[in-house]
Amino acid sequence: MKMTKAKRNKLIYNIVTFALVIGAFLILQSMIANKTITRSLKGQLVPICCWIVMAVSLNLVIGISGELSLGHAGFMSVGAYTGAVVSGLLINVYDIQDATLRLVVAIVAGGLLSGIVGALIGIPVLRLRGDYLAIVTLAFGEIIRNLVNVLYIGTGDGRLYASFLNKKLPEGVTMLVDGAKGAVKIKPISTFTAGFILVLITLVVVLNLVNSRAGRAIKACRDNRIAAESMGVNVTKYKMMAFVTAAVLAGMAGALYGLNSSTVVPTQFTFNQSINVLVFVVLGGLGNVLGSVISATLLTILPEMLRAFADYRMLVYAVVLILVMIFTNNPTILSFMKRLIAPFKRKDVTGGDAQ
Amino acid sequence: MSQQKHHSTTKMVPVPTNSIVPERDINEIPVLETRHLGIEFGGLKAVDDFNLTIGRTEIAGLIGPNGAGKTTIFNLITKVYEPTSGAVLVNGRDLHGLDIAQASKLGIARTFQNIRLFDNMTVEENVRIGLHNNIKYDMFSGILRLPRYWIQENRQHEKALELLHIFGMENLADERAGSLPYGVQRRLEIVRALATNPKLLLLDEPAAGMNPRETEELMENIARIRDQFQIAILLIEHDMNLVMGVCEGICVLNFGRVIAKGTASEIQANPVVIEAYLGKKKEGQA
Known about the structure:
The complex is a heterodimer. By secondary structure, chain A is mainly α. In chain A, 70% of the residues lie in helices and 5% in strands. Chain A has one domain (5-349): ABC transporter involved in vitamin B12 uptake, BtuC. Chain A has helices spanning 5-34, 39-64, 72-92, 99-125, 132-149, 192-210, 213-223, 225-230, 235-258, 271-284, 289-305, 313-329, 331-350; strands at 151-156, 159-164, 174-178. Chain A has a 3-stranded antiparallel sheet. In chain A, helix 2 packs antiparallel against helix 9 (235-258) and helix 4 runs antiparallel to helix 9. Chain B is of the alpha/beta class. Chain B folds into 2 domains: 29-107 and 198-277, Rossmann fold; 119-196, no CATH class. Chain B is built from 11 helices and 10 strands. Chain B has helices at residues 3-8, 70-77, 100-105, 123-130, 139-144, 147-166, 182-195, 212-229, 240-246, 264-269, 271-278, and strands spanning 32-41, 44-54, 59-63, 85-90, 93-94, 108-110, 200-204, 232-236, 249-254, 257-262. In chain B, the strands form 2 sheets. Chain B has a 6-stranded mixed sheet with strand order 6-7-8-3-9-10, with helices on both faces. In chain B, strands 2-1-4-5 form a 4-stranded antiparallel sheet, covered by helices on one side. The mean pLDDT of chain B is 87. Chain A binds chain B through residues 1, 4-6, 204-205, 208-209, 212-217, 219-220, 223-224, 226-235, 241, and chain B through 78, 80, 99-101, 104-105, 109-110, 112, 116-122, 124-125, 128-130, 132-133, 136-139, 141-145, 149, 152-154, 156-157, 173-174, 192-193, 195-196.
């Protein structure tokens, strides 16, 4: 098949994306081997992978499918709790010591459950138009957070116990999820390699999906719903496809994230966290997968690097965000800045005349 | 309406028999038949008792003054609107309860008065959306790049270029659809509609914004598309040269009702049509 210009550009874009991610992984791995990596950065590696997956998957919903979802952290928390429970179940009940196996099963389970939840929410909501999805997904995120707040899960006597609303589990049960205390006593088994593989899987899924029949249908529904329907595209089906795929990926990221520390608490997955991911997506550019990868990485590292500013850290973070948004996305500001700078440049040339 | 009332006051209505179709199509099920089709918007009857039959290979025109309800009829046929009365039959099948995508699968394709292309996609991708239900493969073949993906993508590519060739647009395949000149965008809409493999092609003002030379080409292309694909074409158009030149049966609409269907010469001589367009001649005026 003759390679057209558009196809070549897409191929180059994909190669650059993968090369960048793989290159960064190799560099970081060699830094770990040489022990030249800082402690704080090393601790951030897995979270960075998780946030990249979150950003890329949300970009599938917002950038590619064109629906505003404000509950992405909800899917992450479904994945995180599922991962913690499944991992605990495997070690406490089935006595599986192989950490890699537990991690893989936990991530798959987290993705599956999150996908099912995504489908349940998507079925009623994706038939609607406009801002309904944003409002319902926002509410979903809060509902999930409040549900896990009163969820108690434990293992004992070779079985799983679960209860709701503070009903006590039997004595001698090892708690896995303890209400407002969250998922407790998790054995951290996430590794940077696992995170890297998950990022690769996410990139393959999203980029291949976008450049296929289904992906074109998803973009067509975004660009012009009536025209897409008139061409025989089932809009609800393709919006659903994007939404559920994103939920699955977010659930997997959540499982990885949850199994990276010893506890997961409900307050980690608030509305603010959803907005954070939204910021990654918007800053990286809607529909731009590589942009999401870069912005998720930088904005996860940035708050750590701003520790020197102590109390003003989040203020500086916000200012940096606003400035970057303005300078990269606003053509009016861009042309205004050019005009603003132009006279100064002339003054500089004529030097001391002004004084 | 209660069952009792229904029996006691049966109202007899005329069936549509006044519509004409080309003689060659008379022995086949008409591609489109509307029966007492009507829609109300908050009490306003935008279309009322609209009866039209289109033969399988007919090129038909739908004309009428502005606001007569022409585009509304297209929206009724393509299920953008659900009619409040009457029925639309495509190939003898009632469209009641179907959505836009299902109607498309039954063989209706259309272009839009205000162009609705996928602006941020390339010309070829636009046509590929038209091929969506013709050359298929599932999502997983796409994600995992299974052999089926490569085979079907190749088929889509070749079919898209073949269709673009009809309007000599294959060299524009990689251009962004939104960046094309107006006339070319109109042509792309027709190609995209043809890609869905329709039985009935609805063209909403295809010549709008075209210069006389482009309109001339369009007329030839409309006839050529009908001959090549053996489909019916129903078009809304204000350019009377085009309508009279290419349409076999012309349906005139005024205030949401059919006032005449006939051949070009019949329509031009019809006093009711002349009145609808030019107004009533008053007593004492020249």
